[in-house]
Amino acid sequence: MKLVMIGGGGFRTPLVHSALLRDREPGRVTEVALVDVDADRLRTMARILADQAEGVPDAPTVSVHTDVEDALPGADFVFSAIRVAGMEGRATDERIGQSHGVIGQETVGFGGISYALRTLPTVMELARTVKRLAPDAWVINFTNPAGVVTEAMSTVLGERVIGICDSPIGLARRALGTLGVQHGPDVELEYAGLNHLGWLTAVRVDGVDRLPEVLADAGRIESFEEGKLFGAEWIQALGALPNEYLHYYSYRRDVLQADQYAPHTRARYLVEQQDRFWAVAGACEHPYRAWQDSRNEREASYMATNRDSAGMGERDVEDMTSGGYEDVALALMRGIAYDQRARLILNVRNRGALAGLDDDAVVEIPCIVDAAGAHPIPGARVPDFGLGTVTAVKYVERQTIQAALHGDRAAALRALAHHPLVDSVRVARALLEDARSSFPHLSYLS
């Protein structure tokens, strides 16, 4: 199979490559085409992957391209993982948000909307190009905000675009870890919501829901990251395990205060850290080792201000294990290409599976994957207390898409003003104007 990675010069590319190197099954990916606008990073990334593949027999061949049209022909799968305006754009969103007293995180609230507004025109062009040059390819979207981007791309690609996020499976693995259970074929997860806005509501092991055992034990809850972040009392009050990004909603004042007291924003830290990494990786003999060191440093500082606001301190090593989005992506590809049935939590069109949202709304729920694609499993349920938030945020997502696809400034303003983390129309208007003046990408909003 041929895999094309859009944004292949991005930092997480070696995670995907690691899954490909572990895959020794017949029909595996044998060709990887990296596409990126930054030729220098592409060359360095190719060296990192070559170093990573050292000693692995029959590793996939890797090619690099700065023109997507050169890479797409013959693609079986296309990964989209782009960052329009780069990490500096994320830093700008965080600065603008803080200047107006709102959270500027890149996928939640103002930051997510701003990121989407400058990203959607680019991914829509990508969707049209894929449909023209690789009409039989499946697009697996990692580009944030994943739910919004996947829904917009689905207007061109239909069911052939599927979004992936590792937050739900990471949450589930940590909860299972407290039970001494590993995620496997005997485990079924019930999870429902939108990307970065969902809840784990059941963990069935051999048909028995074990989540009540976790929820009944405060010590067990606070033994893993989400439990420490939200606190056992609140999680027990909810009766479900929230996605870590819901911390921005449940503790917005605390997070904002921690952000304001922090010596630098998350993005500003990443800009400096990544600059150091690329300089070292571009010159050293073993760039993959440099990548591993940088990744460990990056993971250790993940959601640092949220942890500070909760008084959590340093991350535990166990919590730093990723959700394994690269393994989910591999299972998804194999499920489609070889009809290897799998149950995965994905971002897909609802098609009646989740009550309260229409068929075309992209939701994050368990799906069955087979040769025909990803099929949402009917019966997913958002807890009653979350229904209003999910409905409001889906409205925001669709107004954001309306703004980006039609150059509709009023829709962008509606998106910002109706987001639960923006508390004033005046503030929404100021945020929009600051974003428009900061990003040439938003000049289309008239």
Automatic annotation (TrEMBL):
Lineage: Bacteria, Bacillati, Actinomycetota, Actinomycetes, Micrococcales
Alphabetical UniProt keywords: Cobalt, Glycosidase, Hydrolase, Iron, Manganese, Metal-binding, NAD, Nickel
Family designation: Belongs to the glycosyl hydrolase 4 family.
Active site: D166, Y245
Entry binding sites for substrate: R90, N144
Residue span, Glycosyl hydrolase family 4 C-terminal domain: 191-422
Residue(s) at site: Increases basicity of active site Tyr: E106
Top-level taxonomic group: Bacteria
Cofactor note: Binds 1 NAD(+) per subunit.
One Pfam family recorded for the sequence: Glyco_hydro_4C
Alphabetized SUPFAM superfamilies for the sequence: LDH C-terminal domain-like, NAD(P)-binding Rossmann-fold domains
Name of the featured protein: 6-phospho-beta-glucosidase
Gene Ontology BP terms: carbohydrate metabolic process
A GO molecular function held by the record: oxidoreductase activity, acting on the CH-OH group of donors, NAD or NADP as acceptor
Cofactor(s) needed: NAD(+)
Natural source organism: Curtobacterium luteum
UniProt entry tagged with the keyword Cell wall biogenesis/degradation: no
Entry's EC annotation: 3.2.1.86
